[in-house]
């Protein structure tokens, strides 16, 4: 997607694997941006992170992380490893994205019909937000195109829940013949009225608890990690753009009627 010309582009964390170095360090999917590793700032779209991880295999290294959930910068300690049982030295997917872009590209689950693919997948009306998938979702249409392409096929989604304040993986199988309206059987909202509500001053986020990242992986014990908070002013970033906001979109997921879109003023 096109980034606002003054928006910072940083490494955002995607999926975090169970028992991975990323999970043990306390990285949270979708909300956490990796700012630096060791003493090296990571703001270039290159292989710097991969090279730094290789140079620090089985060694504890300081990682600076910014959370868009509570708008705070914190320090973690991560141990890159190829011995944890999964792929990669970190065990998490990452990609470059702006802070603004990450917060905008969410799809709010609205009403969920009984016995629909959405209900069978465990999607919760109004409290769930779809924040990612196996492929990068860069604008509003990408999600609807993805659903269309997976008609009758299982699709893995990363979903944030307001109820648990954490992310989880959901497997859904779009099916236009399920017996009701749409291929998911739920309404989807996109736009500034359907973004994840900010809660920077809640006690939960002020403590910067990482339990949500362990809960999503069904881990029984919290990760052993140390972190310290540092002032946000040490990050010279612009978190809001001057561009006008587009109108929010609501629609029922129906591949046959994707052109019928209700725009809410």
Automatic annotation (TrEMBL):
Task: Enumerate the Pfam families for this protein.
Answer: GRASP55_65
Which InterPro entries does this UniProt record tie to the protein? Answer: GRASP55_65, GRASP_PDZ, PDZ_sf
Extract the PROSITE patterns matched here: PDZ_GRASP
Q: Which GO terms describe its biological process?
A: Golgi organization
* Record's GO cellular component terms: Golgi membrane
User: Segment Disordered: which positions?
Assistant: 204-224
GO molecular function: any one? metal ion binding
What residues does Zn(2+) bind to?
97
Q: Which UniProt keywords apply?
A: Golgi apparatus, Lipoprotein, Membrane, Metal-binding, Myristate, Phosphoprotein, Repeat, Zinc
Cellular localization per UniProt: Golgi apparatus membrane
Ranges for domain PDZ GRASP-type come to 9-99, 105-193
Where composition is biased (Polar residues), the residues are 204-216
Q: Which family does it belong to?
A: Belongs to the GORASP family.
The protein's name: PDZ GRASP-type domain-containing protein
What organism does the record attribute this protein to? Answer: Electrophorus electricus
- The gene designation is gorasp1a
């Amino acid at each position: 997607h096109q980034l606002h010309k003054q928006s910072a582009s940083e490494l955002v964390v995607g999926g975090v694997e169970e028992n991975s170095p990323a999970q043990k360090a306390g990285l949270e999917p979708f909300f956490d941006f990796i700012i630096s590793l060791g003493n090296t700032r990571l703001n270039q779209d290159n292989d710097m992170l991969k090279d730094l991880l290789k140079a620090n295999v089985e060694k504890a290294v300081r990682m600076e992380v910014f959370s868009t959930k509570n708008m705070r910068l914190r320090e973690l300690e991560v141990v890159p490893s190829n011995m944890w049982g999964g792929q990669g030295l970190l065990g998490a997917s990452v990609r470059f994205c702006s802070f603004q872009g990450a917060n905008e590209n969410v799809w709010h689950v609205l009403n969920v019909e009984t016995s629909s693919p959405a209900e069978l997948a465990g999607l919760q009306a109004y409290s769930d937000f779809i924040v990612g998938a196996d492929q990068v979702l860069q604008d509003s249409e990408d999600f609807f195109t993805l659903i269309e392409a997976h008609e009758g096929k299982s699709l893995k989604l990363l979903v944030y829940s307001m109820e648990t304040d954490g992310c989880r993986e959901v497997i859904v199988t779009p099916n236009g013949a399920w017996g009701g309206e749409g291929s998911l059987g739920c309404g989807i909202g996109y736009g500034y009225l359907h973004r994840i509500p900010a809660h920077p001053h809640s006690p939960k986020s002020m403590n910067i608890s990482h339990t949500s990242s362990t809960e999503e992986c069904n881990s029984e014990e919290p990760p052993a990690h140390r972190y310290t908070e540092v002032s946000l002013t040490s990050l010279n970033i612009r978190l809001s753009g001057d561009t006008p906001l587009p109108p929010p979109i609501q629609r029922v997921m129906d591949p046959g009627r994707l052109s019928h879109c209700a725009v809410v003023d």
